[in-house]
Amino acid sequence: MASKIPYAKFILPSAPMRKVTMNMGMFMPSWYDIVGLDKRSNEFCEGIDESQEKILKILKAEHERGIPYNRMVLAGFSQGGALSLYTGMQLPAEVAAESRLAGIVVMSGYLPHASGFNITPGLEDTPIFHGHGTVDPMVRLPAAKESQEHVKEKGATNYKLKTYSGLAHSVSPEEISDVITFLLTYLPPRDDCKVKVKDPSEMSIKELKAAITKAGLGKNVAGLMEKSEFVDLLTKHRDGKL
Q: Which pTM was predicted?
């Protein structure tokens, strides 16, 4: 996906470790506690406020670096998609007064804690793309449809739910393609709004190694000795040639 949208910066935060009721109370990465998969259980989402605040802090930090909120998208899969929807449509009033997000992407997700959900005035037209498999056994399709209905009842005017036949709790190439189309539509390249990325040739060895590790290319550095080799590796990755 990054190679299709080379001008975009992707930030991938990790959910904290917490005890999850549905996981027999054992620790696992989770944005909030999951009591059950039914509608009633979905109202009990302990920890969601703290996770919402964590995402808001990331958005604020990017904004302070010069990126407008309307050039940001919240996206996620399953619980990550749920948190994206819950957070993106309930931005603080001072943020909403400035602008809405460019969009929200929900993959195999749902609206958590629906009884406590209200759209911040000014965010009603935020574009939402919700992709969902027709045979998802974890977050069943009726839950996705109910989420769309509830969010629209609260005032959302641009919520698209697309289903994928035969898809379980996963993503498909078709869905990824649709997400890319959504992002290109609502987050097109703009010359006056760019994150300046340091050229690999200008990086120190330490910076190169850090960038390569962050890009998940650690296994590709075996046998590399010269700085030029590290530069070439990172350059090829950014150009989508790996």
A: 0.80
